Amino acid sequence: MQSPCVTVPRTEGEAVRQRLEAADLLDHDRQIAVEGDAIFVPVMDPGAIPDDLDVVDHATGERDTQTVPNDLVEFEASYERIGDVVVVDEDDPERARALADAIVDSDIPVETVLNRASKIEGELRVREWEVLHGDTTETVHREYGSEYLVDLAEVFFSPRLATERHRVTEQVEADEHVFDMFAGVGPFVIPAAKRGATAVGVDKNPVAIEYLRENAERNSVAESVTALAADVRETTDGYGDWADRLVMNLPHSADEFLETAMLLAGDECVLHFYDIQHEDDPFGPGTEAIEAAADAAGYEVDVETERVVRSYAPHEVNVCLDVRLRRR
Q1: What is the torsion angle, in degrees rounded to the nearest 10, for the CA atoms of residue 304, residue 308, residue 309 and residue 310?
Q2: CA-to-CA distance for 191 and 167, rounded, in angstroms?
């Protein structure tokens, strides 16, 4: 069977495998393949693989050392792991039950199986879940050396953005002021603080802020992190002209907060602006909105990176613009 794989020289195989494991991108249902001096590491989400790694289709076998859900159902099993919670998305109750039973009976380490029961809704960006197995929606997710306690029923969290979060936070330098305008449980804030930044995370969801504070303690960066349960538009008096780096990961409506971003930005500031647009013009609307807000606030704009993060819906993509602002 052909499957998407990261290919590297055999001498780099273990390091890359560990890197993919940390990002929760390994396909544990497929075997690693070796051919000559090259190794082929099966991956779950080829669109999330860092740009410095090559992804190819290559023949891989099923892992015969463990039982996986596909061994136990008569349809192609699709699921996502977040810590020891496994998430499925099945409209048919019988199929959902069969898949949940297969996951529990497999060798996947699992405490809870959840079925998506609604879309992400409301300004707090949470969804409803059907609990198919277990009794908790709380778990610990690990990525790139950090760990995050999260309750999926109370806060928004997507493990699929691990590679993107790593890309952004790897740019952070010691002593920076990093401000995450929609911080959730802290997956941008925590690694930024680990790199020596002073980091502020704001979210309207007070439960998310409680978890952010807990996660700062878990990762030994509490002294460098400030967590605020607030509408970010209410924070400009305390943090006006403060930020060296701003994260705006609210793709459907980040443009509505650009005026606030300009008030938070220092004389020079890098802005990571997330957007969802049609594939025909994924970057134009966001760039225009940033330039208009920046011009009104007296900033020059340099778009440093235009990046498609992932496919979001048919003909729609989730993108990021890395923009440098300089006060005139």
Answers
A1: 180
A2: 11
- Please tell me whether residue 93 adopts helix, strand or coil conformation: helix
Helices of type H across the chain: 13-22, 93-105, 162-169, 189-194, 206-218, 236-239, 258-264, 284-297
Going by C-alpha positions, the residue among 28, 32, 29, 24 that lies closest to residue 5 is 32
Residue 1 and residue 28: Cα distance in Å, rounded? 15
* pLDDT at res. 65: 61
The amino acid that residue 76 corresponds to is: E
Q: Taking a C-beta distance cutoff of 8 angstroms, is the pair 81, 43 a contact?
A: no
Half-sphere exposure of 190 (CA within 13 A, CB side): 26
Please state the rounded mean pLDDT for residues 276-287.
97
* CB environment 184-198: b (16+ within 10 A), e (fewer): bbbbbbbbbbbbebb
Q: Is 76:70 a contact under the CB 8 Å cutoff?
A: yes
pLDDT in tens, 157-192: 988 898 899 999 999 999 999 999 999 999 999 999
The model scores a pTM over 0.85: no
First to last CA, the chain: 57
Where does the chain show beta strands of DSSP type E? 2-9, 33-35, 38-42, 54-59, 80-82, 85-88, 112-116, 129-133, 138-143, 146-151, 177-180, 198-203, 225-229, 243-248, 265-278, 299-313, 316-327
